[in-house]
Write a structure and sequence with these properties.
With about 130 residues, this protein is mostly helical.
Length: about 130
C-alpha cells in the first residue's frame, strides 16, 4: 500500500501545474532551437552550392590554362602567342590595318547635334 501511495505522490507532483508549465517552456525552447538549426542548414546548403559552382569554374579555368600550357610547349603555339601579343609578322608578310569610315562618324555627329536640345545648349553657351 505504501508503494502505491508513493507512486500517487510522484504522479501528483508530475501532473502539477508548475511542472507542466516548466515542461511546456522546455518544449518551446527546444522547438525554437530546432527551427534555428533548420535555418542554418538552409544557409549551409546555399553556401555549399556556391562553393561547388566556384570549384567548377576554377576547374574549367585550370583546364583552359593547362590547354594553353600544352599549346605553348609546341613551336607553332609559341609563334602564335608572340604574334598575337606583340603584333609581329614574319619576313615577307604584310599587315592590314582596318580604319573606321570617317563619313559615318561625321553623319552620326550631325544627327546628334541637330535637334531642339542642341539649340537650347547653344543659347546656354552663348550667355555664359
Amino acid at each position: 500500500m505504501r508503494n502505491f501511495q508513493k507512486k500517487r505522490v510522484w504522479r501528483k507532483i508530475m501532473e502539477s501545474k508548475p511542472v507542466l508549465v516548466m515542461l511546456i517552456v522546455l518544449l518551446l525552447v527546444f522547438s525554437w532551437s530546432i527551427i534555428g538549426f533548420i535555418g542554418k542548414l538552409q544557409v549551409t546548403s546555399e553556401n555549399k552550392k556556391i562553393a561547388e559552382k566556384k570549384v567548377a569554374e576554377l576547374q574549367k579555368q585550370k583546364d583552359e590554362y593547362n590547354a594553353k600550357i600544352e599549346k605553348l610547349k609546341t613551336q607553332n603555339g609559341v609563334e602564335e602567342t608572340i604574334r598575337d601579343t606583340y603584333g609581329l609578322a614574319k619576313e615577307g608578310e604584310g599587315l592590314i590595318v582596318v580604319v573606321d569610315d570617317q563619313s559615318a562618324i561625321d553623319a552620326a555627329a550631325k544627327r546628334d547635334s541637330s535637334g531642339f536640345w542642341s539649340h537650347v545648349f547653344f543659347w546656354n553657351n552663348w550667355f555664359k
